[in-house]
TrEMBL record:
Source organism, top-level taxon: Eukaryota
Species assigned in the record: Panagrellus redivivus
InterPro entries given in the database record: Chitin-bd_dom (IPR002557), Chitin-bd_dom_sf (IPR036508), Chitin_bind-dev_reg (IPR051940)
Residues of the signal peptide: 1-19
Listed name of the protein: Chitin-binding type-2 domain-containing protein
Domain Chitin-binding type-2 per the UniProt entry, residue ranges: 115-173, 176-229
A GO molecular function held by the record: chitin binding
Keywords from the UniProt entry: Chitin-binding, Disulfide bond, Glycoprotein, Repeat, Signal
GO cellular component terms, A-Z: extracellular region
PROSITE patterns linked to this entry: CHIT_BIND_II (PS50940)
Transmembrane segments: none
A Pfam family assignment: CBM_14
Length: 230
């Protein structure tokens, strides 16, 4: 018996001592209805999308997640700077979380672009409409651009990976490189430019992080003296 039913049965017995048959029947129906309301609260829809996972993230590189072992349970990581890793099923530092490995991810601000591209697509990764090598990750109402493919490669939406551009219909293989692959140049404390697919692309560090020119990653501001907020 589910614990909620056991508690309600005890409550029922305590309240119906010496009651008439009509009162007993009416009260019994009310308690059963309450039990159903308590026990049948639906889980978050994302729990049904990932039936094999006990814990489901509410977005990539976010601290909030769902405990699908409980009814309608939304939780958050306890420590600041920690996010929930759906891959590892636990909270860990943003700097080492696999979902945050693309520290340069750029959120696309245009609501018009969001409505036209992600709104009518399921969650997942898709090729950028204007560049075969760039990858867009759609997640509910969030749209982010993640690390693109290298020179001469294009993102295959069917295989969900980068392949040689000549194997992706409509993708130009004769792209003129405007920079050296993986070149990185610091622009300011909150972002930098990196060479992908022959083009310089502007990247942004997340809030509270700054670009560290030594380690060439987005790092805590305290580790980048020139970028410490006064």
């Amino acid at each position: 018996m589910h614990p909620s039913y056991l508690i309600l049965n005890i409550l029922l017995c305590s309240q119906l001592v010496n009651a008439s048959d009509s009162i007993l029947a009416r009260r019994f129906k009310e308690v059963l209805k309450l039990a159903d309301d308590v026990y049948l609260i639906p889980k978050h829809p994302n729990c049904y999308k990932n039936r094999t996972l006990p814990y489901v993230a509410l977005g990539p590189c976010r601290s909030t997640f769902l405990d699908c072992t409980e009814v309608n349970s939304r939780k958050a990581c306890l420590f600041p700077g920690h996010v929930f890793s759906e891959v590892e099923q636990r909270c860990k530092s943003k700097l080492v979380s696999p979902e945050c490995s693309y520290s340069h991810e750029t959120r696309l601000k245009s609501h018009r672009t969001l409505n036209q591209f992600c709104r009518l697509r399921p969650n997942g990764k898709f090729r950028h409409p204007n560049h075969c090598g760039r990858i867009i990750h759609c997640f509910d109402d969030i749209m982010i651009e993640i690390e693109p493919c290298g020179d001469g490669l294009a993102f295959d939406e069917y295989l969900k990976k980068c392949v040689y551009a000549q194997f992706v219909p409509g993708c130009d293989v004769n792209v003129v490189s405007k920079c050296n692959p993986w070149d990185t140049m610091q622009a300011d404390c909150h972002g930098y430019e990196r060479c992908f697919a022959g083009q310089l692309i502007r990247m942004h560090c997340d809030s509270g992080l700054a670009y560290n020119a030594v380690s060439m990653v987005c790092d805590y501001e305290k580790n980048v003296p020139s970028c410490v907020t006064k």
